[in-house]
């Protein structure tokens, strides 16, 4: 299952940016409670204008122009750190 999430960020130059995270959840082969459980899978990031973004040493970096982004909420960074 893939879910898309939008979150606000600030670019290194101080411009507001919207980032989109496509998060894959994989079915757990051995769920603990007998019900369907999901595990965190891959996360792909893009800017709203289509630039690919990677998570590199705790930073979100555009692969197109090396701009960095600071999210207004650390939730996405927490998810990326769990990968």
Report on this model:
By secondary structure, the protein is mainly beta. The chain has one domain. The chain has one helix at 75-82; strands at 2-11, 16-27, 38-47, 52-56, 59-62, 68-71.
Chart the SSEs and their pairings:
Blueprint: E1 2-11, E2 16-27, E3 38-47, E4 52-56, E5 59-62, E6 68-71, H1 75-82
Antiparallel strand pairs: 1-2, 1-6, 2-3, 3-4, 4-5, 5-6
Provide a short characterization of the protein structure:
The chain is mostly beta strands. It has one helix and six strands, in the order ββββββα. A six-stranded antiparallel beta barrel has the order 1-2-3-4-5-6.
Give keywords.
mainly beta; 6-stranded antiparallel β-barrel; 83 residues; 54% strand; single chain
Into how many domains do the coordinates divide?
A: 1
As laid out across the biggest beta sheet, the strand order is 1-2-3-4-5-6
Query: How would you classify the quaternary structure?
Result: single chain
Number of helices: 1
Tell me how many strands there are.
6
Order of helices and strands: EEEEEEH
Helix/strand/pairing category: mainly beta
The percent range for helix content is under 10%
Whole-angstrom Rg: 14 Å
End-to-end distance, in Å? 16 Å
The amount of beta strand, in percent, is over 45%
Q: What low-confidence regions span 5 or more consecutive residues with pLDDT below 50? A: none
Round the mean pLDDT to the nearest integer and report it.
86
Shape: elongated
Main sheet record: 6 strands, antiparallel, barrel
């Amino acid at each position: 299952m893939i879910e898309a999430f939008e979150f606000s960020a600030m670019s290194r130059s101080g411009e507001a940016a919207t980032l989109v995270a496509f998060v894959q959840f994989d079915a757990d082969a051995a769920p603990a409670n007998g019900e369907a459980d999901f595990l965190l899978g891959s996360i792909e990031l893009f800017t709203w204008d289509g630039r690919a973004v990677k998570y590199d040493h705790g930073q979100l970096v555009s692969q197109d122009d090396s701009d960095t982004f600071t999210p207004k909420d650390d939730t996405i960074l927490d998810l990326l750190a769990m990968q």
